[in-house]
UniProtKB/TrEMBL annotation, chain A:
Residues 6-243 form the ABC transporter domain. It comes from Sphingomonas natans. Transmembrane segments: none annotated. GO terms for molecular function: ATP binding. PROSITE patterns: ABC_TRANSPORTER_1 (PS00211), ABC_TRANSPORTER_2 (PS50893). The keyword Nucleotide-binding applies. InterPro entries: AAA+_ATPase, ABC_transporter-like_ATP-bd, ABC_transporter-like_CS, P-loop_NTPase. Keywords: ATP-binding, Nucleotide-binding, Transport. This is ATP-binding cassette domain-containing protein. Gene3D superfamilies: P-loop containing nucleotide triphosphate hydrolases. The keyword Transport applies. SMART domains: AAA (SM00382). The lineage of its organism: Bacteria, Pseudomonadati, Pseudomonadota, Alphaproteobacteria, Sphingomonadales.
From TrEMBL, chain B:
Belongs to the MlaE permease family. Keywords: Cell inner membrane, Cell membrane, Membrane, Transmembrane, Transmembrane helix, Transport. It is a multi-pass membrane protein. This is ABC transporter permease. The keyword Nucleus does not apply. It is found in: Cell inner membrane; Membrane. Could be part of an ABC transporter complex. It comes from the Bacteria. Its main location: membrane. The chain crosses the membrane at residues 6-27, 60-82, 94-116, 155-181, 208-228, 240-264. The lineage of its organism: Bacteria, Pseudomonadati, Pseudomonadota, Alphaproteobacteria, Sphingomonadales. InterPro entries: ABC_MlaE_roteobac, Permease_MalE.
Length: 251, 265
């Protein structure tokens, strides 16, 4: 039995009286890549934001390496966050600074220190995501969407986190660029031994990058299983979702 | 039977109560935001480069627009005092009224309003865009405190720059009045400057500097606060920008009145 990295137990969160998460139970094992699928607005992002401490759950517990992290504050929250990297859906690069400052931001915390060494680190991390050193001094707005995503990935892995969250990593990319990102995620998980949690509604991506898949529906995990079972899950909700049918139990 | 008329009576009070509670909640949120910005800004890590950048944005790059505003206002004020004063042969009051009017009121208020238009809007738009594009969340996951990194440098830079700009604006405004008086209204330059010097008082300058620091505080606070709370895409950022400028204007004019009333009341 593999070691549990993250354990969500009965996680609930409401916004203005509407329950977005309604008792989510989920375990992510160390070194595994898990994908959460589900409709837009099903609470996928909220789940990630609760784990990162960007949102406070109303009830439930989140264990990270066996330690309860709900309600962590100050130095403890900083220490917990140091274990995580996150790739945001829109990349969320800082457009006021050049690429190399973006990539090394987690190491400098925005301080203008160690220029030469930081450029070198930025270059190494860009290389890992297949980007050339000539873009170091460009601004994020000068890059295409796919390149921005890769820079954001380089930024997330630069401090070598133990866990990376991917928020819709392939949304807005053409199928070829999307597959480049998928390959990168697979190689990061395999080479760096990173634990990955991805939220997506791109089935091709989920099947490629995840070892296991879980489906979130109306605030609960209604199905989980290995990726090979995604298309014969025997669950009518999952079937409807992965086949993209308008008719079915999900209205 | 009695339910409907009773409702009619209660409704207006309910509405007043709702807006009062809303106002108190807003004041509470702004106070918390201010407290966090100041307390985090005073503890390390510090961001001197960010602070310097903001001094340039708020102070240095606003100087042309502030200088033009001041010189035109000083000249227009001199002309008005001259025209109004000639009705009862009080033209000689021009230098005194110009210096008092500029230093006590027009200098600080006009600088405050011009900089609020330029800077509160830019801050709200920039931070609001960072909010809706998840850059603020990214900051947190990269373990950088937004209050220390974004808000405090802006707030401290504005509190420091505004007084310096008001000093410059006061000098330029007095110069504008002098220029018009000497060139157009036939005043003797040496006389004009003599009277000006007699009516410049250190107390007035002190009050102008206090006003300026207070205005700078409100300008940055409104820009940062409304940007930070922006939501809902491009429209949300637009709303945040508008609210930031309008509320900065109101706070500047309101606090200006209060300070003037306290000092002279």
């Amino acid at each position: 039995m593999a070691e549990a990295k993250i354990v969500l137990d009965g996680l609930s969160k409401s916004f203005a009286g509407r329950a977005v998460l309604d008792g989510v139970n989920l375990t992510v094992e160390k070194g595994e890549s898990l994908a959460i699928i589900g409709q837009s607005g099903s609470g996928k992002s909220v789940t990630l934001k609760c784990i990162l401490g960007l949102l406070q759950p109303d009830s439930g517990s989140i264990l990270l390496d066996g330690e309860e992290i709900v309600g962590a504050k100050g130095a403890r929250l900083e220490r917990i966050r140091a274990k995580f990297g996150m790739l945001f859906q829109g990349s969320a690069l800082f457009d006021s600074m050049p690429i190399w400052r973006n990539v090394t931001f987690a190491l400098t915390h925005g301080q203008r220190i160690d220029g030469a060494r930081m450029r070198k680190i930025a270059e190494e991390n860009l290389e890992r995501v297949g980007l050339p050193a000539r873009i170091l001094d460009l601004r994020p707005s000068e890059l295409s969407g796919g390149m921005q995503k890769r820079v954001a990935l380089a930024r997330a892995i630069a401090p070598r986190p133990e866990i990376i969250f991917f928020d819709e990593p392939t949304t807005g990319l053409d199928p070829i660029r999307a597959d480049v990102i998928n390959d990168l995620i697979v190689s990061l998980v395999d080479d760096l031994g990173i634990t990955a949690l991805t939220i997506t509604h791109d089935m091709a991506s989920a099947r490629k990058i995840a070892h296991r898949v879980a489906m979130l529906y109306e605030g609960k995990i209604i199905w989980r299983g290995p990726r090979d079972r995604l298309y014969d899950s025997g669950n009518p909700y999952v079937d409807q979702f992965v086949q993209g049918r308008a008719e079915g139990p999900i209205q | 039977m009695t339910a409907a008329p009773l409702n009619m009576l209660v409704l207006p009070f309910a509405a007043i109560g709702r807006s009062l509670i809303g106002l108190l909640a807003a004041i509470g949120r702004v106070a918390r935001f201010t407290g966090l910005t100041i307390s985090r800004g005073l503890t390390p890590p510090y961001y001197p480069a960010r602070f310097a950048e903001q001094i340039a944005h708020i102070g240095w790059f606003s100087l042309p627009v502030v200088g033009l505003t001041a010189v035109f206002t000083g000249a227009a004020l001199a002309q008005q005092i001259f025209t109004a004063g000639s009705r009862f042969s009080a033209q000689s009051t021009v230098p005194a009224v110009v210096v008092i009017g500029i230093v006590r009121e027009l200098g600080p208020v006009l600088v405050g309003l011009m900089v609020a238009g330029r800077v509160s809007s830019a801050m709200a738009a920039e931070i609001g865009t960072m909010r809706v594009t998840e850059q603020l969340d990214a900051l947190a996951t990269l373990r950088t405190d937004a209050y220390r990194y974004l808000m405090a440098p802006r707030l401290f830079a504005a509190i420091l720059s505004l007084p310096l700009m008001v000093l410059v604006a006061n000098a330029i405004g007095i110069f504008g009045g002098w220029l018009l008086a000497v060139q157009k209204l036939g005043f003797n330059s040496a006389n004009y400057l003599n009277v000006t010097r007699r009516f410049v008082s250190w107390d007035d300058f002190q009050m102008a500097l206090v006003k300026a620091a207070v205005f700078g505080f409100f300008i940055a606070l409104m820009g940062c606060y409304h940007g930070y709370r922006a939501g809902g895409g491009a429209a949300g950022v637009g709303n945040a920008t508008r609210t930031a400028v309008v509320s900065a204007f109101m706070l500047i004019l309101g606090s200006n009145f209060l300070i003037t009333a306290m000092v002279f009341g």
